Amino acid sequence: MQLNVHVPKDREDLIRELDDAVTKLERPKSEIVLDAVERYLADLHRRRGARRAVEIPTFDLGVPRTMRRADIYDDRS
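Structure (tokenized):
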């Protein structure tokens, strides 16, 4: 499969940096680009998953007092 990407003039520096990385790392340009896309997508999925996480609110109701069965039924008069 082949992927052609338009690079706007204001981002041409990225291609120069990519060419430098290819030379330094001695790896094919396609591998470096695919690794970067893979990392980007993994990060995107992590961030989306974090947004989906539901936070259940908690409330401090204080220290509960003990009740007796008679306390419940005394108020039913």
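The longest helix spans residues 29-52. The mean pLDDT is 87.
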